[in-house]
Design goal:
With 758 residues, the protein is of the alpha/beta class. The protein has three domains: 322 residues, Rossmann fold (3-Layer(aba) Sandwich); 232 residues, Dimethylsulfoxide Reductase, domain 2, CATH 3.40.228.10; 129 residues, Beta Barrel (Barwin-like endoglucanases), CATH 2.40.40.20. 28% of the residues lie in helices and 17% in strands. Helix 9 packs antiparallel against helix 12. Bound molecules: ligand MGD (2 copies) and molybdenum atom.
């Protein structure tokens, strides 16, 4: 038996290989609480769902214009023929319509390894051909990414290092955790968890006696082992609750005027909205009660409990994956500013504690290098979540954070390392959008729904089948990833596929820079070594690193606290905003981002929520949290994940009262539906979710039958609309549905078998 170090987003491990086959997976010895997801490799490495050879859709060969996508059979073709077809189609598309007609945004998580990171490689390859159409921001925190620069000057408060848990535990009196601190999210981090620390975070908070408040529709968003209070506002109404907390402070003159004067801009204008001077509606606890469904007294109590205390306000990213998802974040910044503790240990705010492993870790800032090339600029770049709009509306415009983008006419779509039929909202609409282009090319390891909707599918290797270097800047270790097995069937590395295509298209030199995998590994480590040297940290030689399998980052000297330097000296370290301070009010945003934006944190109707007229027909608010037993659409088919399902359907969590009134009992199969579509799930009846709210995690593979999904993919139901003109982020969490008992024979799933290949 041979052993090879490797890495997934959910953790580092040693692959045990016998006669070329993976037979065991041992977690990284320095990971105190390894993820069980690793087990899934045992059946996923050589799963029947692996794409085995290049295939082309029959209808595409017959020139059906895309009509049969998602339904046709495929024909297997030799690699050379497949590459000729792809290169030929790229060439004719460029000749006839220009490279802007090629869409290569290719959003998705790809691999933990940085050299073989598929999405980076798509961009690098298409970039050698010219300014192709791409995607910016992300599904995770896209709304915040474009919003925060208006208020803080950059999006680092959501995209970069967060105030450490250690400093919060030591210094905070109260943690208000919007969206909680869900254990499941700590299973992984983009780039790979080195050490799962959720238990440590719980221990630190428990030991320090800090009062933790879970503000979320779901009690389980904080592990029961950490004593905490639970406050459950209706989904998408956090802004109203936050405004009422602000109102409590302002109306009693308990806000920190010194902080607001010295560090913020525009408070007085915001206050006139808050007190109702501007619109005649004071944002009182009574007012917020009508929106959030909480009792006014409870809101007053919560507000009073913050006064004179050191308060840390955290929010998960889910709050902003919603219609007007920018507003709760602005309201949090505003409340934190009124409390006056931004930049102090144990105070202020954080966006992402609770959303993935590594959040709140010490600032390791591990330097990792992949094959991105900034000199190969993309052309038009749309916010990721506007993908269906792009394909459906060529020539139309969209407003994004004060700019106008025109959607190019897309003829060819290229995807590698992502699964839009997992990640996008309103999949019936996406299906229609995916019928528009002339050609869709996908590299995949597995027969995902996206691969099934493509014209040419090229089989890609998995990390165990290639050498790489991986890690997350947030984690303590950088990892060597050794090739443990030969590629499955005819699978190839994305890098080699692109190199061969580049050769056909005359850009091989530019794409490869003359390097192969071995050269890139050394190049990457050399960059890491130099970056570390600039910080006075010495790294071992490549060979030493490679044979040891990991490199340990030293502990940073100080605890990271968000905006500490600004707090210490705002004159020397101003924020890159118009005022140099925190924009409690932004006239620039108001003027740039459409009529509905008042230019400060405000309650804006999210349209699909429990207080809207639409709730008459679809009275339940559907949340679509990240799945507890896998990563997005990945590992869905694994035995490990399927053991957590019931009759091969995902569980939907529903309140006992809502279940009883619909005649639904534990484990019953139910149908979730609205005007956009429907899917099936198994009922998990509980009182840990608030009445009126149901939660169906993402990730079940889309198995369409007309407009319904035989499986449990919640994106049949979610709404495909931008968060607002500010962020144009995804609004997955603003969605109303009805749930009913499913009667009849459970349809047979087809998506866990490969499609027909001739
Ligand atoms: N309703 C709803 N929808 C959501 C969300 C939500 O909260 N609610 N969350 C959103 C969020 S935050 C995210 S990040 C997205 C995630 O969306 P995605 O990142 O698109 O989801 P994954 O399933 O991780 O897709 C990655 C795909 O890349 C493939 N892959 C991995 N490695 C390689 C490789 O080396 N080469 C190639 N060619 N392929 C590879 C995998 O097999 C997998 O199919 O989903 C979003 N969708
Ligand atoms: N196990 C596992 N972990 C993951 C992932 C995975 O696929 N699997 N994906 C990773 C990725 S890509 C990302 S971006 C992060 C996402 O991280 P998050 O966005 O934090 O994850 P979610 O599970 O969508 O949301 C967290 C909780 O927010 C609550 N919530 C939803 N809407 C509201 C609301 O309106 N108000 C309040 N107060 N609470 C609300 C829900 O109850 C939910 O459980 O997770 C990462 N972690
Ligand atoms: Mo994400």
């Amino acid at each position: 038996m041979k052993s090879y170090p490797s890495l997934s987003h959910w953790g580092a491990f040693t692959a045990k290989v016998e006669q070329g086959r993976l037979v065991g997976v041992e977690p990284f010895v320095r990971d105190p609480h390894p993820s069980r997801f690793n087990e899934a490799w045992l059946d996923m490495a050589a799963s029947p769902l692996r794409v085995a050879r290049p295939v082309v859709r029959k209808g595409w060969l017959a020139g059906d214009g895309g009509a049969g996508r998602g339904e046709d059979a495929f024909v297997a073709v030799p690699w050379d023929e497949a590459l000729d077809l792809v290169a030929g189609k790229l060439r004719t598309t460029m000749d006839e319509h220009g490279i802007g007609a090629v869409f290569g945004g290719s959003y998705g998580w790809s691999s933990a390894g940085r050299i073989h990171h598929a999405r980076t490689l798509v961009h690098r390859f298409l970039g050698t051909l010219g300014p192709f159409t791409s995607q910016t921001t992300n599904y995770s925190f896209g709304a915040a990414m474009l919003f925060l620069p208006w208020v803080l000057g950059t999006h680092r408060a959501v995209s970069s290092v967060q105030t450490t848990w250690q400093s919060i535990a030591r210094n905070a009196d109260v943690v208000l955790a919007f969206g909680g601190i869900p254990a499941k999210n700590y299973e992984l981090v983009s780039g790979g968890v080195a050490q799962h620390r959720y238990e440590d975070v719980l221990d630190e908070l428990r030991a320090s006696d800090v009062r933790v408040v879970n503000i979320s529709p779901f009690r389980g968003d904080i592990d029961g082992r950490l004593p905490h209070d639970w406050i459950a506002p209706r989904p998408n109404t956090d802004t109203a609750l936050l405004l009422a907390l602000c109102h409590h402070l302002a109306s009693r003159n308990l806000h920190d005027r010194n902080f607001l004067n010295r560090y913020c801009d525009g408070y007085d204008e915001f206050e006139s909205y808050l007190l109702g001077v501007a619109d005649g509606v004071p944002k009182t606890a009574e007012w917020a009660a009508g929106i959030t469904g909480l009792e006014a007294a409870r809101i007053e109590q919560l507000a009073a409990s913050l006064v004179g205390r050191r308060v840390m306000i955290t929010a998960t990213w889910s709050l902003q994956r919603a219609r007007h998802g920018e507003q709760p974040y602005w309201a949090i910044i505003t409340l934190a500013a009124m409390l006056g503790q931004i930049g102090l240990a144990g105070g202020g705010f954080g966006f992402g504690h609770g959303s993935s492993a590594g959040m709140g870790n010490p600032d390791f800032n591990a330097p990792l290098f992949g094959l991105a090339r900034d000199d190969l600029k993309a052309g038009v770049s749309i916010p990721v979540a506007r993908v269906a709009d792009l394909l459906l509306n060529p020539g139309e415009t969209v407003r994004v954070s004060g700019k106008t983008l025109r959607y190019p006419d897309i003829r060819l779509v290229y995807w590698a390392g992502g699964n839009p039929f997992h990640h996008h909202q309103d999949l019936n609409r996406l299906r229609e959008a995916f019928r528009r282009p002339e050609t869709i090319v996908v590299h995949e390891q597995y027969w995902t729904a996206t691969a099934r909707h493509a014209d040419i599918v090229l089989p890609a290797s998995i990390p165990l089948e290639r050498n790489d270097i991986g890690g997350s800047s947030r984690e303590r270790y950088i990892f060597a990833m050794h090739k443990a097995c030969e590629p499955f069937a005819e699978a190839r590395d994305d890098y080699d596929i692109f190199a061969d295509l580049a050769r056909r298209l005359g850009t091989w030199d530019e794409f490869t820079e003359g390097r192969d995998e071995a050269d890139w590994l050394r190049w990457s480590w050399q960059n890491t070594t130099e970056a570390l040297a600039r910080r006075g940290i010495s790294a071992p030689s490549f060979d030493e690193f490679w044979s040891k399998g990991h490199f340990e980052m030293p502990d940073p000297e100080a605890d990271f606290i968000l905006l500490e330097r600004f707090r210490d000296d705002p004159e020397t370290n101003p924020l890159p905003t118009p005022s140099g301070r925190i924009q409690i009010v932004s006239h620039a945003l108001r003027d740039a981002c459409g009529e509905e934006q008042p230019g400060h944190a405000a309650w804006l109707d999210p349209e699909e929520w429990l207080g809207s007229p639409r709730a008459a027909d679809h009275p339940l608010h559907l949340l679509t949290p990240q799945p507890a037993r896998h990563l997005h659409g990945q590992l869905d088919a694994s035995a490990f994940n399927r053991a957590g399902k019931h009759r091969d359907r995902e569980y939907v969590t529903i309140h006992a009262g809502d279940a009883a009134s619909r005649g639904i009992r534990q484990d019953d199969i139910v149908r979730l539906f609205n005007d956009r579509g429907s899917c099936l799930a198994a009922a998990n009846v509980t009182d840990t979710i608030m009445p009126g709210v149901v939660a169906l995690p993402t990730g079940a593979a889309f198995d369409p039958d007309g407009t319904m999904d035989r499986n449990s993919n919640p994106n049949l139901l979610t709404r495909d609309v931008g968060s607002s003109e500010i962020g144009q982020g995804c609004s997955a969490q603003s969605c109303l549905v009805e749930v009913e008992l499913f009667i009849g024979e459970l349809p047979k799933l087809t998506v866990y078998d490969p499609p027909a290949i001739e």
